[in-house]
Design brief:
alpha/beta, Immunoglobulin-like, 8-stranded parallel beta sheet, 20 strands, binds alpha-D-glucopyranose, binds calcium ion, glycosidase, Glyco_hydro_b, GH13_cat_dom
Length: 556
């Protein structure tokens, strides 16, 4: 029997920089994660995915790795990591590390060597191209962080490719030595007990070797074209599976930014031996104006019908063909109550309602640090933000191309920017929310005085306790893991409702995702269902769902 522990698991993501600081340097660290293991055990999670904590110049908060085998001193050292793995295992918690294999930092020894000459061992570790006759970039590809995806290197007199920041050169996966070097790193951490991997932008590792220009639909000089899912992507991922994932029984969840559910099948169908799960981006785009030149900064109100359609499509299309990874929040996403719910009057209700509809689905739910207490977006000023993506996009869209005004950009940033999730964890109401005794590396959300772990525990409306219940339900009821899924009322603009079914057992998961009361006639058909979890303490008229009211009902 294959050990598919992750199918019945809930995984908690830690963004180490912002989790808990033990040495008062203002930066969260590995001993800080260790210190909070009992907290996580109490929540009930099965595994922790730790965002990159390797040696890094921190241009992109660790997603720019200089040495895959070394923990960055800001987080501790390798022994701290080994101890953390050990201490987590003692509590029955697994550890998932983050593998950023599409690119490294430009401060990596591999890149330092590579740029030195065209004929050393590392020369072909990256993607180098000669300038065009006129000295310009090899093609018009744009970086996700704004500007060209090519940067000229004076030493090598060539351009190198980077899908992200210019300090994040892309590795050349065509080179078998690169692939082996990555697999070696994965074996190294496996030898220290790591249980699996979250694979950063893994769908970008294969590049079209013709390096064709992107068709440019806009007036913009650079566009990010469809650079994902390149021609050898499946071959490379399958090789990684055979070399490391399968022999060492390591769980894998890949980040798959532009994959649709039909592409995902090819990545996660167990028969193909590639990945266990992928993170889709599709359901996170329901508040973005399609086709707008300003991309993620062109926000619109969330379209619930679309959200349901997308999630249901992934449920349906992966049925029998693979496993879903379920999430609303991570270190690249804003806080759900602020983004799609109501982070004022109905903070508890909207946090728990979105959690209910997510955790009721078939797949493995991921909880991002702070989500379990209903943390919210800070409403920062532009100068408070730190994120490289936000800054480079601001320069490009507001300052250079002027396709969006500074005011609209800030409005969008407060709603969807990645920094919304990166403010330090709010543990209590002491200075800096108990996150650090020093000066936090990033501004705290000032609401930590009222919104924190201790206050949540003392409240009658505890988001944490609700998450505990959801996690326990998943562990105790096979129907959540294996039951079929059927979306009901697909066109309803306010209600998210679906049915799970297993061997005659039937569960109804329902939420009102609006701030007004809704009467749901459909509930008449479910009069013989009994509530097993709900986010309101008092009963209402059976057919009415109050603002952000959510329930899980079971057929008697
Ligand atoms: C992924 C990460 C993100 C990072 C990017 C480049 O999308 O989640 O944080 O900036 O890859 O590594
Ligand atoms: Ca620290």
């Amino acid at each position: 029997m294959k050990n598919e522990w992750w199918k019945n698991a809930v995984i908690y993501q830690v963004y180490p920089k912002s989790f808990y600081d033990t040495n008062a340097d203002g930066i969260g660290d590995l001993p800080g994660i260790d210190a909070k293991l009992d907290y996580l055990k109490e929540l009930g999670i099965d595994a922790i995915w730790i965002s990159p904590c390797y040696l890094s110049p921190q241009i992109d908060n660790g997603y720019d790795i200089a040495d895959y085998r070394k923990i960055d001193p800001m987080f501790g050292n390798n022994d701290d990591m080994i101890k953390l793995i050990h201490d987590a295992h003692q509590r029955g918690i697994k550890i998932i590390m983050d593998m950023v294999a599409n690119h490294t930092s430009d401060k990596s020894a591999w890149f330092e060597e590579s740029r030195r000459s065209k004929d050393n061992y590392f020369s072909d570790f990256y993607i180098w191209k000669d300038p065009k006759i006129d000295g310009s970039e090899p093609n018009n590809w744009g970086s996700n962080f704004g500007g060209s995806a090519w940067t000229y290197d004076e030493t090598r007199k060539q351009y190198y490719l980077h899908y992200y920041g210019k300090q994040q050169p892309d590795l050349n996966w065509e080179n078998p030595k690169v692939r082996q070097a990555i697999y070696d790193v994965m074996r190294y951490w496996k030898a220290h007990g790591v249980d699996g991997w979250r694979m950063d932008v893994v769908t970008s590792i294969s590049k079209n070797q013709k390096f064709p220009d992107n068709e440019n639909p806009h007036h913009l000089k650079y566009v990010v074209g469809n650079q994902d899912n390149g021609p050898r992507m499946h071959e490379f991922i399958h090789e990684m599976n055979q070399e490391v994932l399968k022999p060492f029984e390591m769980m894998s969840v890949g980040e798959a930014p532009s994959s649709k559910s039909k592409d995902a099948r090819l990545l996660v169908d167990p028969k193909r031996e590639e990945l266990n799960m992928v993170f889709t981006f599709e359901h996170m785009h329901v508040d973005r104006k399609p086709g707008d030149v300003n991309g993620r900064w062109a926000i619109q109100p969330m379209d619930l019908v679309q959200l349901k359609k997308t999630l249901a499509n992934w449920q349906d299309n992966l049925e029998g063909h693979g496993w879903n990874a379920l999430y609303f929040e991570n270190h690249d996403r804003a806080r759900t109550p602020s983004r799609w719910g109501n982070d004022q009057e109905y903070r508890y209700e909207s946090a728990t309602a979105f959690a209910t509809v997510l955790h009721g689905l078939k797949g493995t739910p991921f909880v991002y640090q702070g989500e379990e207490i209903g943390m919210t977006n800070p409403k920062f000023e532009l100068s408070d933000y730190e994120d490289i993506e936000l800054k480079t996009n601001y320069q490009k869209l507001v300052e250079q191309e002027q396709t969006i005004s500074a005011t609209d950009f800030l409005k969008a940033a407060r709603k969807i920017s990645r920094d919304n999730a990166r403010t330090p964890m709010q543990w209590d109401d002491s200075d800096n929310g108990g996150f650090t005794k020093g000066k936090p590396w990033f501004k705290m959300n000032p609401n930590y005085l009222e919104l924190n772990v201790v206050a949540d525990a003392q409240s009658t409306k505890s988001v944490f306790r609700y998450y505990q219940s959801l996690i326990k339900l998943r562990h105790d009821n096979h129907i959540l893991e294996s039951g079929s899924f059927k979306l009901l009322l697909p066109e309803d603009k306010n209600i998210f409702v679906y049915l799970r079914e297993l061997n005659g057992e039937k569960w109804l998961v329902i939420a009102n995702l609006s701030d007004v009361e809704q009467r749901v006639e459909l509930l008449k058909d479910y009069a013989d269902y009994k509530e097993i979890l709900g986010n309101y303490a008092t009963d209402s008229d059976g057919l009415v769902l109050r603002p952000y009211e959510s329930k899980i009902l079971k057929k008697l």
